[in-house]
Each structure stands twice: as C-alpha cells, then as structure tokens.
Write a structure and sequence with these properties.
single chain; about 325 residues; alpha/beta; three-stranded antiparallel β-sheet
C-alpha cells in the first residue's frame, strides 16, 4: 500500500483511511456496533492505519467504538478525531440538534481542553495523532484556537493539527499562527471545488489533504437500484443527488467504465477511490464502511495504480454522463 506523511508532523499513513461517521448511527439510518468494530479491525488487518472519527458522530458513540476496536492494537493505528462541535456548552453558534442535544460550533480554548479529555477517554488512549477542528467558529479568533492546539501538542496529547470545512482565507490565518498538518474536505469525482481554492494553498505550505465522502455518500460506489429506498434518518432519503434520473445517469457512467474495471481487476468503488488519490488529488481518501467486507474492499484501493490513460477514461466518462448530476 502507498504511504504518505501528513504535513510536518511525521505521521505516516496509507492513501486510504477509514471514516467512521456512519458508525455513529446518526443520519445514516442506525448502525450495527458489532459490525462496526469488525470493520475497524478488518481495516487494520488490510493495512489501513488512519481511522478518522469525531465526537459529533453519534455524540461520542463512534469514538467509543473506535476505542473498543483498538484495544490491544492502538500502536497499529493513526487516530484522527475532532473538536469544535459541542453540546456541553451553548457558547459559539448553534449548528444543529442531535438526539435532543443542541450542538454548537465553538473552538474556544477552554472548550477544546474539555473536549480533548473527553475524546481521550472514549478512545481509550493517552494521545491523539491528528486533532482536527471539525467546523469553523466565527465567534472565536483563530489565534486562540491555534494557541490551544499548539499547547496540546507541546503536552503530547496530540501529535498533529488539522482543520476541516474551512475556507482558504481561514486556513491562511491558521497557518499564520503555526503549522497545519492536514485539512479534511469533501472531495470526489463529483465534488472538486477544492482543486481551485484549497489545494494550491496546501501544496504551497506542505499541508496534507484528507478527502472525505470519496464515494459521495455511496453514490459512486456502483449502480444503485432505482427502486431502493433510504429510510429512517438516512440523509440520502432527501438528497436530490439520489434521484431516479441521477441513478440512470450513473448507471450509464458505470457501464462506460466496465472495460476499465475489468482491465484493472477491481471494483467500481475502488476505481473511484483510486481516482481521488491520483497525482493532483488528495493525500488520503477517507472511506466509510459498515462492515468488514466493505472495509477490506476499500482498503484494496490503496494498491490500485491509475496511469494517465486510465484517469483520462474516467474523466471522459464523467464529462459525458455526470455534468447534470448536481
């Protein structure tokens, strides 16, 4: 598997990581805890190191699952978690409600110090490899937030600093106050905005790029049955991208890629993941998994090499079929 280093942190990981948002259950129609733990362990078995989680994923539930899964295997993993979406205080700005709790965006110093201790306990560890500001807080100066993160780094509680869901101007402000080792942003074949906004700044300052939603909430994992229904609180139920018309477009897109898939002996999902980590793409693709089978299949994408003609084939098929997807 291909390995990379995140920024100047010295943290090394593979080009495919495991995302645990769905494991928290919230917005994904529930979850199977035993299957989630199996998925985390299967990722490690398949060579994946980076496990990405956050307190907001089920109000600590995903972090707890990661901690349970990593017992006895902590040294095999690179653990990334986040701060800044809080329900222990009403400081900052209200963002959303989850399970009856009002969640606020807040990145004040005292709140970050509170959050890191909660995360360390749930993760059953005494350090976090990459600590990421989950969403930005316009009520707290970046200087205060960065000062807190740098203090945690000096204390050995975190190894590296990341920011997520950030605009280029705010990332530049973070960089004025200290090193940022990685950003985490949405990136897939159909979500490419950061190529012109954040990627140039990251390359200029040697900031790693973690791409989340590499399969666009599963839309790019392969053809979806037009009759499939998403129930409960699954966010895809009301997402216009999952319309019948879009599923038809995607079916045609995947049909065009079938010869390439056969040539490379991979799945369509692996092909889409490998596209995101091509030269000029993200440093690491974060891929969600519900069970061990999905986790193992995603991990194999790290060994898939796409040459320029392969990338051109994918881009041409996307141009033919996916331009109207949004």
């Amino acid at each position: 598997m291909n390995t990379i280093t995140l920024g100047t942190s010295g943290i090394r990981c593979q080009t495919v990581g495991l995302g645990t948002w769905a494991m928290g259950g919230w917005m994904w129609g529930g979850n199977d805890d035993a299957a989630a733990i199996d998925a985390i362990r299967a990722s490690l078995d398949a060579g994946v190191q980076l496990i990405d989680t956050a307190p907001a994923y089920g109000l600590g539930h995903a972090e707890d699952l990661v901690g349970r899964a990593l017992e006895g295997r902590r040294q095999q993993a690179v653990v990334a978690t986040k701060c800044g979406l809080v329900w222990h205080t009403r400081q900052g700005r209200h963002f959303f409600d989850e399970e009856g709790h009002a969640v606020h965006r807040h990145l004040g110093r005292a709140s970050i110090f509170h959050e890191v201790e909660q995360s360390l306990a749930r993760l059953r560890t005494d350090y976090i490899d990459l600590y990421i500001t989950h969403w930005q807080d316009d009520t707290t100066p970046v200087a205060e937030t960065m000062d807190a993160l740098l203090d945690l780094k000096r204390q050995g509680k975190i190894r590296g600093i990341g920011v997520s869901n950030v605009e280029a101007a705010t990332l530049a402000e973070y960089l004025r106050h200290g090193p940022v080792d990685a950003i985490q942003e949405r990136y897939s074949l159909i979500d490419r905005d950061i190529e012109s906004t954040l990627m140039p700044l990251c390359r200029e300052h040697s900031v790693g790029i973690l791409g989340y939603s590499s399969l666009a909430l599963g839309l790019l994992a392969g053809p979806i049955d037009p009759a499939r229904q998403f129930g409960g609180d699954d966010q895809r139920a009301g997402n216009p991208r999952f319309s019948t018309a879009n599923r038809t477009r995607l079916h045609a897109f995947f049909q065009d890629l079938e010869p390439l898939r056969q040539q490379l002996d991979c799945t369509l999902a692996q092909l889409m993941i490998a596209w995101t980590t091509r030269p000029g793409g993200v440093t690491t693709a974060l891929c969600g998994a519900r069970d061990a089978r999905q986790a193992t299949q995603n991990a194999r994408a790290a060994a898939l090499r796409l040459d320029p003609p392969h990338i051109a084939t994918i881009d041409a098929a996307a141009q033919r079929h996916l331009q109207a997807l949004d």
